[in-house]
Amino acid sequence: MKRLGLLLLPILAITLMLGGNAFAQGPVAGDGSYYFVTYYSNANTTGAPDGVLRLVNDGGNATAAPEGVENGTLWAAIYVFDDSQEMRSCCACLITSDGLLSESVNKQLTSNEFTGRGQISRGVIKVISSNTPDPTAPYYDPGLRGWMTHIQRATNIPEAGASYVTETPLADSNLSRTELSNLGALCSFGLTLGSGYGLCPCTLEDFDF
Asked: How far apart are CA 95 and CA 57, in angstroms?
């Protein structure tokens, strides 16, 4: 019996070190993701429908409070790149607990870009779940989840200009300190040099496209 006890002690210790202390832990909410990427295509294209970025606040940061008092608010720090890997716009949009934010690719995310050179058609969108309203200094805080509609040209069917619309979850990604710093710095430079251009407008919650 003593030998069995000596064998079980190291196993228990290893289990606890690996996070197996399920006895002391409560339910784990979500997967802790706070950085997402996706793409957009055929934006601002004649005959093609609009793409939409949709984000929700899962409410995991909410605390006990009297009804009607909002808490657990997050901001979606959004960074829009073109297909030349250049940031073209950025913003931070408020999403309250259990709230829904919908951003149009054509009307918002690509409508007010830094250079004013014209509308862009494809590229990358990055989103940080942040607890600050400043897109130039995001601070990650888990709690947002998102989806994106993609517009794809139907080149293999007779109807000219036909498009398919699909929707997929945003891809969870790895956020390094360098990437966090770069996104904020690029947004800051763009907004400064753009002299008023580049700040993508945010819709009110629960408004959809």
From this structure: 6
Q: Which helix (H) or strand (E) holds 14?
A: helix 2-17
Residue 177, helix vs strand vs coil: helix
- Cα torsion angle, 57, 53, 112, 90, sign: positive
**What pTM does this model have?**
0.80
Spatial separation of the C-alpha atoms in residues 196 and 191, rounded to whole Å = 6
Task: Specify whether the CB–CB gap between 73 and 141 falls below 8 A.
Answer: no
Q: Alpha-carbon distance 87 to 93, whole Å?
A: 17
135, 187 contact by CB (below 8 A): yes
pLDDT digits (tens, 9 = 90+) for 176-205: 999 999 999 999 999 999 887 999 999 988
**Domain locations in the chain as residue ranges:** 29-61+72-193
Q: Are 163 and 74 in contact (CB under 8 A)?
A: no
Q: Select from 190, 90, 77, 182 the least CA-distant residue to 140.
A: 77
Rounded distance, CA 76 to CA 205, Å? Answer: 12
In contact, 90 and 192? CB cutoff 8 Å = no
161 Cβ contact list (under 8 Å, min separation 6):
46, 47, 48
The pair of structure tokens assigned to 126 is 């990055």
For 29-61+72-193, CATH gives 2.60.290.11
